[in-house]
Amino acid sequence: MWTPDLNLLITLDVLLAEGSVARAARRLRLSPSAMSRALARLRETTGDPLLVRAGRGLVPTPRALELRERVSQLVQDAEAVLRPAETLDLNQLVRTFTLRTSEGFVESFGPELIARMGKEAPGVRLCFVQKPNKDSAPLRDGAVDLETGVVGKTTGPELRAQALFRDCFIGVVRAGHPLSQGEITPSRYATGRHILVSRQGLHRGPIDEVLNSLGLEREIITIVGGFSTALALARATDLIASVPERHTRTLRTGMHSFSLPVSLPEVTVSLLWHPRMDADPAHRWLRGCVRDVCAEQG
Q1: Domains of the chain by range and CATH?
Q2: Model's pTM, two decimal places?
Q3: 218 to 124, 148, 189, 237: CA distances (angstroms)
């Protein structure tokens, strides 16, 4: 019975990451000749050259590119299994966590989350980055530790998700706007001048679909990429912004908000992370902090 040499996985992982026999040898503290022999064994085992010469360097074959992410994950999983369990000491924890969030999340939940970090783990720093799309690659490659958003068709199927809160869209206008008084009917809402929020620059959205089913059409004056931009415009003009309520609570201070006169389904905002971080004590603690803060701000 043939038994594979699992040590070759570590060698392959480093070779594919470095793209160089010499650099891989230094990283694994092997001689270049030993690394060359290991590469020869890998080629024999996989039946593929894996790395081929191109000029003065080496480039991966299609088979190597196909294996790279799987091999890296296998090595990470093995290291996690063999790593001794650690007791988390929050007072001694020094770490930067990167959170990718939709616009408005930091303004609404950031202050409480940062205050909690400072109290429980003063050595922890939060790095908030914008979420221009729903690409799951930043979670996969470790560039992002946590993400908030609505789970959709483009969400990576391997990602873990936990619901944080439900949100609904509302209308927002400047103080003193005509829509700040009286009943707002679908017709009255539709006849206003509107701002459409679309990260992809689309010219219509779910609200327009519902209005069209009622025989109505709203006039979209401008299209912007984010909620804060839409609210800034609405604050300074007679334009109407339609935004998620909880995400924009802080951004809407001093403005008039109203329930939309059309029926739209609520959205569930979830916390997303890669499964390789499941067992990490510090990451697990951070996830709990985010969940608690969102629940408290409800």
Answers
A1: 7-82 (1.10.10.10), 95-167+268-296 (3.40.190.10), 169-265 (3.40.190.10)
A2: 0.65
A3: 47, 30, 8, 17
